[in-house]
UniProtKB/TrEMBL annotation:
<dbReference type="Pfam" id="PF01565">
    <property type="entry name" value="FAD_binding_4"/>
</dbReference>
<feature type="domain" description="FAD-binding PCMH-type">
    <location>
        <begin position="31"/>
        <end position="197"/>
    </location>
</feature>
<protein>
    <recommendedName>
        <fullName>UDP-N-acetylenolpyruvoylglucosamine reductase</fullName>
        <ecNumber>1.3.1.98</ecNumber>
    </recommendedName>
</protein>
<comment type="similarity">
    <text>Belongs to the MurB family.</text>
</comment>
<comment type="function">
    <text>Cell wall formation.</text>
</comment>
<dbReference type="GO" id="GO:0008762">
    <property type="term" value="F:UDP-N-acetylmuramate dehydrogenase activity"/>
</dbReference>
<keyword id="KW-0131">Cell cycle</keyword>
<feature type="active site">
    <location>
        <position position="296"/>
    </location>
</feature>
<dbReference type="InterPro" id="IPR016167">
    <property type="entry name" value="FAD-bd_PCMH_sub1"/>
</dbReference>
<feature type="active site">
    <location>
        <position position="176"/>
    </location>
</feature>
<dbReference type="InterPro" id="IPR011601">
    <property type="entry name" value="MurB_C"/>
</dbReference>
<dbReference type="InterPro" id="IPR036318">
    <property type="entry name" value="FAD-bd_PCMH-like_sf"/>
</dbReference>
<dbReference type="InterPro" id="IPR006094">
    <property type="entry name" value="Oxid_FAD_bind_N"/>
</dbReference>
<keyword id="KW-0961">Cell wall biogenesis/degradation</keyword>
<keyword id="KW-0521">NADP</keyword>
<keyword id="KW-0133">Cell shape</keyword>
<keyword id="KW-0132">Cell division</keyword>
Length: 308
């Protein structure tokens, strides 16, 4: 056993929560991605702090894996530690109109639990297949709502082990972004302010969101959601469709015929296929309309053919 593996076993007592050379395609909605050196299920803050300390001492990169949506992992995989927040990070507690939720809790679970408790404001999240923590980092949203509208505080652990509580201003929410992107911050808990609402009304709104998702998104094939951010005052899907790129293909990666801002995996697509197709889409849209599309999907590992 390597020295790093020994140290990991001293932090994570259950060896079943440590996977070596784990193919990440098993853990992404794209069903694409090479191996992680280590994929680790982290159950509490003590374990997380220990792993971050180890990573710092050994100069190991750290990645946080949510539900694997909005993510493209390179064919070569990623080095270092890929951490999945489980255990106490999935907690969910409601106190009046306030929700305290762990960063590892899924957004659909949060939305449905809030509905059952008669709390509105988070219905849009029922159709977002991600975690609360990842959602805060990218300000996840849909159907006219986003997390910036409800988040009142986020507790993060920085790469050096510091624990800090951040206000919405400090988080710096933007369109599908926040100041936390590109930093070492790991969102471990979020406080949200919701409002009383009728369960029947919320149920109808959520049913509408889910039906719209099924009707407009290519759920038949593995994908990572919207590939590009919408440019100001326009929609990436409209520009891609007007550029004649619906159905464009690179290997088994294809611009969806159902929604042009989705790239689907027809079966055996590689990350290189997707990145090459993204480059073609972006360059064509820029040539046709003078608009440079910005990637919304996150890219892990080597990405020689695409500059976000």
């Amino acid at each position: 056993m390597s020295p790093i593996a020994e140290r990991l076993r001293s932090i994570i007592r259950d060896p079943g929560r440590i996977r070596r050379d784990e193919p990440l395609k098993r853990h992404t909605t794209f069903r694409i991605g090479g191996p992680a050196d280590y994929l680790i299920q982290v159950a509490n803050r003590q374990e997380l702090s220990g792993l971050l300390r180890l990573a710092g001492e050994e100069s190991l990169p750290v990645y946080i894996l949510g539900k694997g949506s909005n993510l493209l992992v390179s064919d070569e995989g990623v080095r270092g530690l890929v951490l999945s927040l489980t255990g106490e990070f999935g907690h969910l507690a409601l106190e009046g109109s306030t929700v305290r939720v762990g960063g590892g809790c899924s957004l659909p679970k949060l939305a449905h639990q809030a509905r059952k408790s008669g709390l509105g404001g988070i219905e849009f999240a029922c159709a977002i297949p991600g975690t609360v923590g990842a959602g805060v980092v990218i300000n996840a949203g849909a159907h006219g709502g986003d997390l910036a509208q409800v988040v009142k505080e986020a507790t993060v652990i920085w790469g050096d082990g510091r624990l800090e509580r951040l206000s919405p201003h400090e988080i710096g929410f933007g369109y599908r972004s926040s100041r936390l992107q590109g930093t070492s911050a790991i969102v471990v808990e979020v406080v949200m302010a919701l409002h009383p609402a009728g369960p029947a009304e919320m149920q109808e709104a959520m049913r509408h969101h889910l039906e719209r998702r099924r009707a407009t998104q290519p759920l038949r094939y593995p994908n990572a959601g919207s590939v590009f951010k919408n440019p100001p005052g326009d929609h990436a899907g409209r520009l891609i469709e007007q550029a004649g790129l619906k159905g464009a293909r690179e290997g088994d990666a294809q611009v969806s015929a159902k929604h042009a801002n989705f790239i689907v995996n027809l079966g055996q697509a590689t990350a290189k296929d997707v990145l090459t197709l993204m480059d073609r889409v972006r360059s064509t849209v820029q040539q046709r309309f003078g608009v440079l599309l910005e990637a919304e999907v996150k890219i892990w590992g080597q990405s020689p053919c695409f500059l976000p």
